[in-house]
Amino acid sequence: xxxxxxxxxxxxxxxxxxxxxxxxxxxxxxxxxxxxxxxxxxxxxxxxxxxxxxxxxxxxxxxxxxxxxxxxxxxxxxxxxxxxxxxxxxxxxxxxxxxxxxxxxxxxxxxxxxxxxxxxxxxxxxxxxxxxxxxxxxxxxxxxxxxxxxxxxxxxxxxxxxxxxxxxxxxxxxxxxxxxxxxxxxxxxxxxxxxxxxxxxxxxxxxxxxxxxxxxxxxxxxxxxxxxxxxxxxxxxxxxxxxxxxxxxxxxxxxxxxxxxxxxxxxxxxx
Length: 271
Fold this sequence. Notes:
The protein has helices at residues 2-11, 94-105, 129-135, 149-153, 171-176, 199-223; strands spanning 22-28, 31-36, 39-43, 87-90, 110-113, 123-124, 127-128, 180-182, 185-189, 192-195. With 271 residues, the protein is an alpha/beta fold. The chain has a three-stranded antiparallel beta sheet with strand order 1-2-3, with no helix packed on it. A three-stranded parallel beta sheet has the order 4-5-8. The protein is globular.
């Protein structure tokens, strides 16, 4: 990523100011005037990328866990040595799926609580999925272009992981890696975790949305004359999770990521 950004900057000799604090941004008739610690900047546009996602969104549900339960927000997680198993990861979007995958590969007993999520293959017809998202114009969509802005803002991040082999990271792959898959964490009653029974519907919805997206890819390939240049169209297998598990572990249980951005926990049995 660093090499990519450096090459992008060099491609048009973009000026870069290191260690520079922006003190104010003021609209002008032709753009914006910025006052910084190293001088002024005039700009047609300003991108505010201050990292709001660096502030964990801790659901109120976290307060219902027994005293002594350890919670770890994803922003504070560094590697599997940060936690002791078993671990409960709450949320199956990008960060939740990545955490469950990494912890399971480290030999830790992991349970993943799954709610609404977006499943897509890392590659489709020989091309990275982000190539398709760009070709379809999805990466260029403005909030004013979507039918329901509030719904769009709540769309979960894609279940993807960056890896040299560009492997998939859906619920099927996580289950194959030994991760226990359960429904959405709906509540906590004493030392019992209350799990929603909507898992089958949530999984079916994610599979259907993936099917529609891949069909859009196929339609675009046909309309733009790319069919012969790409590998054959195919469809990933539907997610199969087997019979619902009845969690009845004793002893330490979770460490988790509530809402895909939150918690963990030890001493409590789950169900």
